[in-house]
Amino acid sequence: MSDDLFLSATDKKPMYLQIVEQITSKVLLGDWPTNMALPSIRELAATTKVSVITVKRAYAELEQAGVIVTQAGRGSFVSAQPDLQLQLLQQQLQQQLDQAIDIAKQLQLTEEQILDTVQQQLELRREPRRE
Amino acid sequence: MSDDLFLSATDKKPMYLQIVEQITSKVLLGDWPTNMALPSIRELAATTKVSVITVKRAYAELEQAGVIVTQAGRGSFVSAQPDLQLQLLQQQLQQQLDQAIDIAKQLQLTEEQILDTVQQQLELRREPRRE
DNA sequence: CATCCGTGCATATTTGATATGCACAGTATA
DNA sequence: TATACTGTGCATATCAAATATGCACGGATG
């Protein structure tokens, strides 16, 4: 099992974000089940070589996002309703896409052109290098 | 006529942005006609009390946005593009899609899944009538 | 109370955006 | 071509926000 997180210091992303993303991933993928106790802040800080405060911040974001629940003195646990968050994000996605399509329609783009645009945008983000 | 720009130092917005917005506005409203020569970088820098470099940056953004065209040694001119509005919309679209992709990434969606989602959204809107 | 747990605060460090001066290059025209 | 306008590239200063930290403190549990 991979209870451990693998943070890369070479990654340009901030440490706290890496923690957030990896834990979010594990929860969403069902790797970490509902109500499972997360590694304590100090423990994770030790294994990942970052400060307690940084892990704390990551956990705070995860709680804000509804992925985990944390109780002072007890620990942090995988939220009992991670699906809610998922659905929320999906709603946001739908909404965001809807607005995008609104604009695309104003531009008289065909559906095919819209898909092409999305495709291009994905490629752009895959290779942000410009030299 | 109001060829002059009115920059407020008290405004929280950065100077270069104020320049960009005010010029964009004048062009969109037809206040400044196609091919009209803009005030030179140095002239505008003098009247607005900011550095040449800052005006230069504003003009660079305006050119990037397709609002103006600038030629070294000659000056800057209101773009001849009749589809300025369209270009601006195009930018909005890009921006909107970028945000959507941000969310999709959070959902751990693959690029293929993202495209599928857009496809579904398009189909949804094609026949929203249900009564 | 001993020992785990999370938390609040003040602060250092890093990063990116904004703004600048100056020397240099392109263009027009007399 | 001389001159007097244009815009441009670069190295740098300033500033604000993001990121990361140590330490002292409060809560939970056996």
Task: Give the topology.
2 copies of one chain form a homodimer.
Chain A lengths: L14 H14 L12 H8 L3 H13 L3 E4 L3 E4 L3 H25 L4 H16 L5
Antiparallel strand pairs in A: 1-2
Helix pairs in contact in A: 1-3, 2-3
Chain A binds a DNA duplex (30 and 30 nucleotides) through helix 3.
What does this structure look like?
Two copies of one chain form a homodimer. The first copy, chain A, has 131 residues and is mostly helical. Chain A has two domains: 15-80, Orthogonal Bundle (Arc Repressor Mutant, subunit A), CATH 1.10.10; 83-126. Helices cover 58% and strands 6% of the residues of chain A. Chain A has five helices and two strands; from the N terminus they run αααββαα. In chain A, strands 1-2 form a two-stranded antiparallel ribbon. In chain A, helix 2 (41-48) packs across helix 3. The longest helix of chain A has 25 residues, at 82-106. The first copy, chain A, is elongated. Chain A binds chain B through residues 24-25, 28-29, 86, 89-90, 92-94, 96-101, 103-104, 106-107, 111, 114-115, 117-119, 121-122, 125, and chain B through 86, 89-90, 92-94, 96-101, 103-104, 106-108, 111, 114-115, 117-119, 121-122, 125. Chain A binds a DNA duplex (30 and 30 nucleotides) through residues 14-16, 40-42, 50-54, 56-57, 59, 70-76.
- Largest interface, Cβ cutoff 8 Å: A-B, 29 and 26 residues
CATH arch. level architecture of the largest domain in chain A: Orthogonal Bundle
Within the CATH hierarchy, at the fold level, what is the topology of the largest domain in chain A?
A: Arc Repressor Mutant, subunit A
Number of strands of chain A: 2
Radius of gyration of chain A: 19 Å
